Amino acid sequence: MDDAPPDMPENAEGPPLGLDTPSSRAGYTVLARKYRPSRFEDLIGQEAMVRTLTNAFASGRIAHAYMLTGVRGVGKTTTARLIARALNYKTAEVDQPSIVLDPPGEHCAAIQKSAHVDIMEMDAASRTGVGDIREILDGVRYAPVSARYKVYVIDEVHMLSTSAFNALLKTLEEPPPHVKFIFATTEIRKVPVTVLSRCQRFDLKRVDRDELAAHLKGIAEKEGAKIEDDGLALIARAAEGSVRDALSLLDQAIVQGGDSDAPVSALQVRDMLGLADRARVLDLLEAALSGDHAKALAEIAELYDAGADPAVITRDCLDFVHAITRVKVVGEDADLAEAKETVARLASIAEGLSLAQLTRLFKILLTGLDDVRQAPEPLSAAEMTLLRLSSAASLPSPEDAARMIAEGGPAKETTPAPKPDAPKGAEAPRSESSGAEQDDAYGDIGDDVRDDVRDDAPPLSAYEDDLPDPEADAPAEAEAPVEGPKDFEALIGLLERKRDIRLKSDVERFVRPVSYKPGSLVFEPEAHCPPDLAQRLARALTEWTGSTWAVLPSKDSRGGETWSERRKRERRELFEVTRRDPSVAEVLKHFPDAELVDVRSASEDEEDFAGNGEKRQERS
Q: Tens of pLDDT along 216-271?
């Protein structure tokens, strides 16, 4: 018996192997793949990159490596394949690199399907090691099989290891003339600068909302679907500039209509996306800003019951406050991508709020958004954020509170806080250097001095009153008076004018004057006083005044307070007087959490202004 199979004609079809799917059973192609750009002209929102590549190809200045970066879904991989097609473009009429890919060339279809033998695509997220890069380097030396260039497309290149990057560097800098590299990444900061410097970089930007919505509308028409323009705008907004995300959401929105001929409404799209009704969010924000706590809490509860995410509600409130601020600054002509009715409502809200209040509200919502995202109960955190927002909106700004006090409060009849009576001889202005600068000039010994400050030391003026008047007691035939500062305060001023910071700091900290007259100073040295302070001070005064000065330390005599102690005492007294002032007390009443930080007189501000002007003149 012959078991051989019967002879079959040459044209007869063999038995089905189950590998070829009948066209009637072909799977559905999602919109993100179906409408992937096949020409550079089809790319939306990337005009700058297309223009650069067009000029480069026209002039023959084609780079050997390209780096494409941008957020997900803006077309990095698609652009890489388009560049690979452009490099290997060949038709019966054209046999050179060309940015114009119409009609398609011999290699275009295979490159488009990632099936060309000379176009190698590698996902660096799954092949990160140096061994994978060695495979590329081994193949670089071989010429392409059929195409003009051998092109290596490496996606998510930032995932490569440090060793892999280092192995790639030399070949990337000087590749063979038949090899081109195209890299794509979403994390450009993770790519070593040594790699970036060897590539021509293109930053693919997010697609504008209006442009993306128009693109979605055209695709919906091609698919025979009807979606309201407001619904398309919601999809474009949710996509955040990503074309792929927008097409995926459009795919989902098209099926919302079912078999009905009615267009998919914005409400259906909003429910699909889990978004809150922005009109109701604006109602919620208005209730919070007007101080209607009950209405604000009821609104957010209804939005939450309808399926809105508390984080999304807070984010929408944040967006609205930002929009209100833009309207406040620019006017109703601000580009907000909102309906005219919404812009009018935002403008009416902006009229009742100052710019300072709006910035404060934005900061509260920004902090509240983090709280909502991290809280175990997001709704509770969102409610507390709204209550903080309502309380802050009702508070007057500091300038308004001061104006209210001045016009109708008890501070109306009061005068500004007087500067406390300074001891005798203290009428001269304070030094330019702040207390912090002087206290830190000698930090290693200054802390010890602060601990050893003598609270019982009498004021410096008590000793100055007992000093004899050299002019009154001097006989008529006495010598001419010594040139120089007339009192200890004038001595401090001289040290300041001479800009001897170290000497001035030592005198202020460690000198307790016992007696003073022009040409002579006797002082009690404070603890940790530099042993050469008297000699340095005497030498400096003699040099500056042209007269001989005697500066003598005396540990047996009791001196007055140091200049630093005097300044601190005056500061404490000024704070006490200011804190008791009715105007200040009224301001602190309006702002319970406020505290008195600093007190400055008008004369001090004028001196600082004059001093800064002199410094600017010296620098110029």
A: 999 999 988 889 888 898 888 888 888 999 999 999 898 887 666 788 888 888 87
Q: Quick one: 17 exposed, middle or buried, by C-beta within 10 A (0-12, 13-18, 19+)?
A: exposed
Domain extent, residue 445, equals: 435-567
Angle, helices 310-330/355-374, rounded to nearest 10 degrees: 160
On whether both 172 and 144 belong to a single domain, the answer is: yes
Rounded CA Rg of the chain: 40
Q: Select from 170, 203, 236 the last residue of a domain.
A: 203
577: tokens are 């007087």
Convert the pLDDT of each residue in 277-334 to its tens digit: 677 888 889 888 888 888 889 989 988 887 788 998 999 899 889 989 988 888 777 7
Domain count, the chain: 4
Q: What is the pLDDT of residue 19?
A: 43
Residues 143 and 105 in one domain: yes
**Residue in the block written with tokens 């473009």:** 89
Listed residues 241, 273, 305: the one ending a domain:
273
pTM for the structure as a whole: 0.55
Neighbours of 168 (CB within 10 A): 25
> Do both 168 and 47 map to the same domain?
yes
The answer to whether 368 and 381 have CB atoms below 8 angstroms apart is: yes
**pLDDT at position 68, please?**
94
Dist. CA 155–CA 574, nearest whole Å: 67
Full DSSP string of 487-518: SHHHHHHHHHHTT-HHHHHHHHHHEEEEEEET
What does the alpha-carbon distance between residue 256 and residue 265 come to, in Å, rounded to a whole number? 9
CATH number at residue 167: 3.40.50.300
Give the domain CATH number at 253: 1.10.8.60
User: What is the total residue count of the chain?
Assistant: 620
